[in-house]
Amino acid sequence: MKRPSTGGIVRVLIAISLTALVGWKSRPSEILSALAHARLGPIAAATALVFLDRALMAYRWLVLLRPFAGPDGPRFTAVMRIFFVSTFVGTFLPATVGVGAVRAYSLSREGVAASAAVASVVMDSVLGVFSLLLMAVVGLMFARQMAADPVVVGALVVTALGCAVAAAVVFSRHVDRWLGAIVGLLPWAGVRDVAGRLLGAMQTYAATQGALGNVLAGSVGVQALRIVQAYCLGVGLGIAQPLTTYVAFIPLILLVMLLPITVNGLGTSQAAFVWFFAQVGVASPDAFALSVLFVGLGVVGNLPGGVLYATGGVSRGSRNAGQPTT
Question: For residue 127, what are the domain limits?
Answer without folding.
Answer: 8-310
